[in-house]
Structure formats: structure tokens, C-alpha cells
Write a structure and sequence with these properties.
alpha+beta, 10 helices, Ribosomal Protein S5, domain 2, 287 residues, six-stranded mixed sheet, four-stranded antiparallel sheet, Alpha-Beta Plaits, single chain, globular
């Protein structure tokens, strides 16, 4: 059993403020553009030094707690890359639902990388850490810093942005899960003639809600909404409660909406059933 004092790290979820699929690549991945924003819903990752090996436990019995878990893979990747023989026990306390488009597994993996750099006394250039993160998953790189950022490529090419997002983010996860692979297989590519970068359009519209609503969209929504009535129900409920710019995050099933009004944000989910996971994030949130 672990005997050292654990290092605890909070691993925040994210929403995608717009998700545009540009093209399918020859390697089977897709080029995308998105704006990532951290939200206040978090997992907790605890890392404890052990003599050797990588062990793990997780509060969610539906997730693997062995070497296929992304947290364990992150630790193994770092250990192999550095040649160290250090050991770690990973304890994962899950609050972020999986299959919700919130990046919980990727955020957990990023927390493991950051924590082990400290626990194992590793000095490594940020670019080198980002390369390891990108090898683990498309959005792991974002979670190394969080906040607000533009993502492109597979989502792993990150351009940090000033954290000036002026809206409350109300995020709701219905009791359904969406596999990212299913969403990609069922989406229809949206034609955008003479398109400009999402970053350029977002920057030009962020301070005006109406312009933002015209700018942001999620290319997965049509397929997911047609297949999952529970996701449509949440979208409609948030719109009815006065939230704006309501859309899915990533491949779903989470749905979020924006408002400048704190009371609207705090009361928007008051009568949703208890099997929905709810998160309310204040403006300019910094994890």
C-alpha cells in the first residue's frame, strides 16, 4: 500500500465554444478548429510515490483502473520517455462524466503528467511535455494549462488566449453517453465556402452575444440530436430558461449555454432531475 503523502491535483473539464470539422485526413483523423474553455467541474487526481511500477484505483467502477486507463498510460509514457524507474500509485476521484464531450480523461492524464514532473523531479521543456501530451490524446495538450485557447489540427495544436470570456457557462450532462468515434462516423461535413479561421471570428464577436451566436456552432450536433432525444431536451430546457448560444460540447452528450446574468446562471438548472450532472462556471474562470 502507498505510504507517502499524496500529491492532489484538480483536473478541470472543458467545453468547446464551437467545434468545426474541416476535413478528414489521410491518417484517419480529422482536422478541426475549436475554442477550448475550462469549466469548474473537476476530477481529483492523487499521486503517491511507490518503489516501482504504476498502480491505480478509481471511484468510477465503469472505467478501467489498469494500464489501459489514460492516467496510467500518461505515467508510463513519461517513465519510458525519461528512462526513470520511479513508481507511482494513482487514485482517481471521478466527477466528470465520461462520454460527455468534457475531456475528463484527457484532463486527468494532463494532471498526471504535471504532477509526476514534480514528484519525480523532472525538468523538461514545455514543448517536450506538450509532445508527450499530444501522443496521449487530441485535447490532452490543452489541459496542461487550461483557461481559454484556440485548438486546431486534431485539437492538439494549442494557441493560448487571454482569459477574457465574459459569460457564465452553465453546463448540463444528461444520463446518456456518446462515443466520439460514433459521432465522427455519423456526422456530415459542413461546407463553409470562403471560411475564415474560427479564432478570427470568435475574437471579433466575443463581446456581443448576438454575434457570438451567429459565429459558434458544433458540427456534431445534427447527428447527435437526431439520435439522442435526451440531449435535445437539455438544449431546449436551457434555451427556455434564458440561456444563449446553447450548444453541445465536443461530441456530446453535454450541452452548455451562456449568460451575463448570475441569477439566470444559478437558477437555470434548478428543476432538472438528479440524474443530470450540472456545472456553473463564472466569467473569466481560471483553473
Amino acid at each position: 500500500m502507498p505510504t507517502h503523502t499524496p500529491l492532489a491535483l484538480e483536473a478541470p473539464a472543458k467545453v468547446n465554444l464551437g467545434f468545426e470539422i474541416i476535413r478528414r485526413r489521410s491518417d484517419g483523423f480529422h482536422d478541426i478548429e475549436t475554442i477550448y474553455s475550462s469549466i469548474a467541474l473537476t476530477d481529483t487526481v492523487e499521486l503517491t510515490l511507490i518503489d516501482d511500477g504504476i498502480t491505480m484505483d478509481c471511484t468510477d467502477p465503469s472505467l478501467p483502473a489498469g494500464n489501459t486507463n489514460l492516467c496510467a498510460r500518461a505515467a508510463d509514457t513519461l517513465r519510458r520517455h525519461t528512462g526513470l524507474q520511479c513508481g507511482v500509485h494513482i487514485s482517481l476521484k471521478k466527477r466528470i462524466p465520461h462520454g460527455a464531450g468534457l475531456g475528463g480523461g484527457s484532463s486527468d492524464a494532463a494532471a498526471v503528467l504535471k504532477g509526476l514532473l514534480k514528484l519525480w523531479s523532472i525538468r523538461m521543456a514545455e514543448e517536450e511535455v506538450a509532445d508527450l501530451a499530444a501522443g496521449l490524446g487530441s485535447d490532452v495538450s490543452f489541459f496542461l494549462h487550461g483557461g481559454l485557447a484556440f485548438g486546431r489540427g486534431r485539437g492538439e495544436i494549442i494557441q493560448p488566449m487571454p482569459n477574457v470570456f465574459p459569460y457564465w457557462i452553465v453546463c448540463v450532462v444528461p444520463p446518456v453517453r456518446i462515443a466520439t468515434s460514433w459521432a465522427y462516423a455519423n456526422h456530415k461535413l459542413v461546407e463553409r465556402p470562403d471560411r475564415t479561421s474560427l479564432l478570427e471570428r470568435f475574437t471579433g464577436s466575443v463581446d456581443d452575444m448576438l454575434s457570438l451566436e451567429r459565429t459558434l456552432s458544433n458540427d456534431f450536433e445534427r447527428a447527435v440530436m437526431e439520435a439522442q432525444p435526451a440531449v435535445r431536451h437539455v438544449r431546449d430546457a436551457l434555451r427556455h430558461r434564458g440561456l444563449r448560444c446553447v450548444m453541445m460540447s465536443g461530441s456530446g452528450s453535454s450541452v452548455f449555454g451562456l449568460t451575463t446574468d448570475a441569477a439566470t446562471a444559478l437558477h437555470a438548472t434548478s428543476d432538472l432531475s438528479s440524474d443530470h450532472v450540472v456545472s456553473v462556471t463564472p466569467p473569466r474562470f481560471a483553473p
